[in-house]
Amino acid sequence: MISIDQAKLLVKNHVKPLLKETIKPVEKAGGYYLFEDIYSPINMPPFRQSAMDGYALHLHDNLTYKLIGEVKAGDNFKPTLQPGEAVRIFTGAPVPDSANAIMMQEKVKVDATKISIEEQLDEGHNIRPIGEQVKKGDIALKKDTKLTPASIGYLLSLGIRDVKVFKKPTIAIVTTGNELIEPGQDLTHGKIYESNSKMLLSALYSLKFYDVTIHKVEDDYQETVKTLKSVVSNNDLVIITGGISVGDYDFVGKALNELQVDEVFYKVKQKPGKPLFFGKKEDTSIFALPGNPAAALTCFYVYVYIALQKMMGIDDIELPCVQAKSISNFYKNGDRPQFLKAIFDNGHVEILEGQNSSMLQTFAISNALVFSPEEQNHFHFGDFVETILLPV
Questions:
Q1: Interacting residues of 198 by C-beta distance below 8 A, sequence separation 6+
Q2: Is the pLDDT reported for residue 118 higher than 70?
Q3: Has residue 247 got a pLDDT over 70?
Q4: In contact, 155 and 148? CB cutoff 8 Å
Q5: Which protein family is named in the record (predicted)?
Q6: pTM of the full predicted structure?
Q7: For residue 88, what are the CA distances in angstroms to 82, 94, 97, 104, 129?
């Protein structure tokens, strides 16, 4: 049995970036990382652009101007202004080449075909110059940039339709157990509704990993070997829940051994999630998580999350961790380091009751995990505690 820090380090050292590329439509590339620098095909803005509603002026020494027309956003109208002339203009509209400043409409008095402005302006006032955001041929976004809604909007504004991004891993979730049935079926004696696969699927989706398949295996050795052989051969990451302990019907460990999966570690000194397995088969990473739901989800956030980030070539690969002030008095059971379900809010954290590894009720309202070291059994109100912030 190894320590938590040893387990994390082994995951970091054994999982390598995929470094594979794929092309995605920009609007579907959210959460991906750019595989290469993106160069702007245009100037942005592509023309001198009005920064607000007002009046475009050809400046002169007087505060009065002759109004000769109007330019709206999208117009191809290109009036020529002489000194002392102005046009009505709107935000985003092209500024005539002969205009050299824009006065906001709130500081203008209009009298038929004449306007009066409150003060003299400097040249270029309220005009967005060509290429203010980015110039044609310059780098718009650098390689390894994570594509967010803002960056997607930015790329689309440049007329870019497709981008080359790092390919995300293909992932298989495997659940084991004769006792598991699907929600909607009659809950007969001895059966429970299966939740781990969809829970982990949701966790992956929230992190924007969508290439995921789910496989269910009965407690049968040959069927377990057959299913695991298939998913290990066809995926970058395999997540198994249940069947990794040493019971008579826990076949996962034996099946992985038959498939010659290299064991990196098995069992971590922690609670929940002691019977955690991590192994490799060529380039495929395999995690066998405990069957208890809260333990499975905790191991996902602490270890599988690291593997996912490493596969994407990301350096900052653990969930954010902060020091938060406890608003709970809490006694920890047992002598193992423990991840405690908690609610974090504005620098304070409440450690919740109901920490059993089989219980999701408490996890369902948590947004954080408080880490309790081996030597600490009691948290007092006001203590500062290590708090892992979960994705939301």
A1: 214
A2: yes
A3: no
A4: no
A5: Belongs to the MoeA family.
A6: 0.81
A7: 15, 11, 15, 10, 19
